[in-house]
Amino acid sequence: MRGRKAVVGLCAVGGIIILWFALTSWFGIIPAGRFPTPAQFWVALKQIELRGYAGSTLVDHALHSLRLIVISFLVAVGTGIPLGLLMGWNRRAEALINPVFMLIRPIPPLAWIPLAILWLGLGDAAKVMVIWFAAFVPSVINAHAGVRNIDKSVIEAARMLGTPPLRMAGEVIVPASLPMIFTGLRLSLQASWTTLVAAELVGALVGVGFVLNMAQQDIYPAMILVGMLTVGVLGWATTFVLGLVERRVLSWSLQGRG
Amino acid sequence: MDSAPLTLGQTLRLGLIGLFVFFGIWLLLPTAGLVPPSFLPSPIAVAERVATLTTEPFAGATLPAHIAYSFTRFIAGFALAALIGIPLGLMMGWFRLVDEIVSPIFDGLRFIAPIAWVPFAALWFGTGIGGPVMIIFAGAFPPCVINAYRGARQVDRRLVEAAEMLGTGHFRMIVDILLPASVPSLVAGLRVAAGLGWQSLVGAELIVASTGVGFMMVQAQANVATSTVMAGMVAIGIVGLAIDMALRWTEASIRRHRGLDG
């Protein structure tokens, strides 16, 4: 049945590509000013890779965006997970922090962009700040839920055996909440990409969002498509890497599930 | 976890301390002159700004008018996403061939952040209503499809088999079994979709619109009117929260209705 699925899937993707050729190049139903032909797309791709567009080559734009994502994501996760774990474990900390957190949470990360530009300008620092907001909230929520969903009997057993607090954290709480934490990380990663692209569209000097912005201003549909596909490929690649990390870290739990 | 649950009094007291510290620092920084008010206006200045914006227009309209523009766009994009996404997701869950054809395309498109559709949205539908509506659609569509798909997949096979045995036609099967059985999953999907749609709308308005709360914030940013930017953030947060609460209430009342039914 797997074979059939792959065949139908490939046919669907092939159909879309043929449809693209048919609607644009062969019959001209969609005018080239609205959506590029495959040939125009190829020309735009060669242009940005060989001569550069919006200041540098595609690889440089992509690497710049990727670097921002990785840095901000790690900072957000590095602050969000410990806070979530603390709020899940310590009821006093939760009661203290939760109202403030609930106050900030409804503001979508994208709404921080104008403030970030006012505070930090158009450079990388403003992007790190908004991505931090985007990725921070899901990490906190899921780490918190992860601790709360730990089987009580496991904690009590560990406590009865006299486990010291540090070992409790390292060997019971963190490992048991990891599956939930990884769910949060996947959400964080998605939110990070959306936010970065938006921030680069609003104001940037380099990056894939900036390519999209310039292509929009130049009314250059082929380059818009190049930029969009780059965003898609980068989003897919980072999700794939996160999946690999998850499989490695959670191998014990997946084996346990059979 | 580490201790017995706190009493209501303890929770309230700690929560108030937290809020007090948060607002205290926010108030102290600009009023004590540690940061200039144009950098961080005090909470009082932001509240005053919200109040003045209800009567005094900024960027072409008052704050309530901007909210009304944004909300109209949101409803249009959200309704479109639900009307197209839910039937598509249900069909994908119900007919295997539809699933096999649509899934690879859908999975590929999902990795493109909704905001990346902004240039094409502006090119195809302009920057008035159509462009932003398309961005909201791009944000709200995937959760509608995914949850409708899950809902259709989770229909109890025994119900389907029983209906089949009794000779139920295909159409009645969809209306009487598939739809009611997947409603809880659909509503959960709509809640996620509303959150993502509202957030995408803000992004779209920051970039391509000429009205709406997002546009007001961008204009304020260009004029270094920090208190207006923060007033916009407050408005976006409150409307987003209201939308979420409305859907949460719908979800709860459907569940309750179901509970009574069963």
From TrEMBL, chain A:
Parts of the chain that traverse the membrane: 7-29, 68-88, 100-122, 128-147, 193-212, 224-245
Keywords: Cell membrane, Membrane, Transmembrane, Transmembrane helix, Transport
InterPro entries linked: MetI-like (IPR000515), MetI-like_sf (IPR035906)
Superkingdom of source: Bacteria
Localization per Swiss-Prot or TrEMBL: Cell membrane
Annotated Pfam families: BPD_transp_1
Main location: membrane
Domain ABC transmembrane type-1 positions: 62-242
Family as reported in the entry's similarity comment: Belongs to the binding-protein-dependent transport system permease family.
Annotated PANTHER family: ALKANE SULFONATE ABC TRANSPORTER-RELATED, MEMBRANE SUBUNIT, GLYCINE BETAINE_CARNITINE_CHOLINE TRANSPORT SYSTEM PERMEASE PROTEIN OPUCD
Name used for this protein in its record: ABC transporter permease
Source organism of the structure: Jiella sonneratiae
TrEMBL record, chain B:
Membrane topology type: Multi-pass membrane protein
Keyword Transmembrane helix set for record: yes
ABC transmembrane type-1 domain ranges (all copies): 67-247
Principal subcellular localization: membrane
Native source species: Jiella sonneratiae
CDD domains in UniProt: TM_PBP2
Chain ranges passing through the membrane: 12-29, 74-97, 109-127, 133-152, 224-247
PANTHER family per UniProt: ABC TRANSPORTER PERMEASE PROTEIN MJ0413-RELATED, ALKANE SULFONATE ABC TRANSPORTER-RELATED, MEMBRANE SUBUNIT
Location of the protein in the cell: Cell membrane
Record's keyword terms, sorted: Cell membrane, Membrane, Transmembrane, Transmembrane helix, Transport
Family: Belongs to the binding-protein-dependent transport system permease family.
Keyword hit for Membrane: yes
Matching Gene3D superfamilies: MetI-like
Protein name: ABC transporter permease
